[in-house]
Design a protein that fits this description.
By secondary structure, the chain is of the alpha+beta class. Helices cover 36% and strands 22% of the residues. A five-stranded mixed beta barrel has the order 1-2-3-5-4. It has a three-stranded antiparallel sheet with strand order 7-6-8.
């Protein structure tokens, strides 16, 4: 049976000489893998160029619960994303975020609130003309709202520590090693209070942004057992120096 659904591209890779697999987060089925014929093949109905990281597509697909890899019949661009492709910084960021979402958001079930958040965020990144160096930090923290471990900032006070293991701010240094020092905690609290309209108001050095990003990786690993290494993280670090 054929179904229509919007989808966000997370990964595209060769399967054999004539076909490829595209991993997507769909509006109707959650994260899925689809088999598609390459554009140079005789049976191709879809141009491979549409499957760039974070592309927002309209798909027509076969769906059977017993299949690990479903079949893709048709794919069309739902929202054109010009600057994610033409801007090298945004391209690196989209590659990183697509990999991150693919490893953090598991499950083959619909989550339309999460899907709408991702679509909105991707469009913000595409259209932002300046001051988007902190976009990924804001995006990843807000993503935790949908994953069940958004940081609790209710007890924040100056000179406190953020407990990465338990997800809240404390006045005394935790007895374990998974916490942010006072300076990092203050910056972490600032990021928690940013949104896409205000993300440019916080100015970070490249080293400080890299350090905070690495602590976010730690935070995700502590709360998601399946969270793996992000191969594109070093590329992102190089882009922001």
């Amino acid at each position: 049976m054929l179904h229509k659904t919007r989808a966000i591209v997370l990964r595209y890779f060769n399967y054999n000489d004539t076909s490829a697999i595209v991993r997507v987060f769909t509006e109707e089925f959650g994260q899925m893998s689809y088999l598609t014929y390459k554009s140079k093949g005789k049976r191709a109905k879809v141009a491979g160029s549409v499957f760039h990281p974070l592309a927002i597509l309209d798909l027509e697909v076969e769906h059977q619960n017993s299949r690990e890899i479903q079949r893709l019949q048709e794919a069309k661009v739902h929202v054109p994303l010009v600057y994610l492709l033409s801007n090298p910084v945004k391209s690196a960021m989209s590659l990183f975020l697509a990999e991150w979402v693919g490893k953090a958001v598991k499950g083959e079930q619909a989550d339309r609130l999460l899907f709408d958040y991702l679509v909105q965020s991707i469009q913000v990144l595409d259209l932002s003309e300046k001051d988007y160096a902190n976009f990924h930090l804001v995006f990843l923290l807000r993503l935790t709202q949908f994953l069940g471990f958004y940081p609790d900032a209710e007890n924040y006070a100056p000179h406190c520590y953020f407990d990465l293991l338990n997800g809240f701010f404390v006045t005394a240094q935790p007895s374990h090693v998974h916490f942010l020092d006072r300076e990092e905690s203050a910056l972490f609290f600032q990021i928690l209070n940013l949104n896409y309209d205000t993300m440019g108001e916080m100015h970070l050095t490249g080293n400080r942004r890299k350090s905070l990003m690495n602590r976010l990786v730690e935070y995700y690993r502590l709360h998601l057992d399946v969270f793996q290494d992000i191969n594109s993280l070093e590329v992102l670090h190089e882009v922001f120096g």
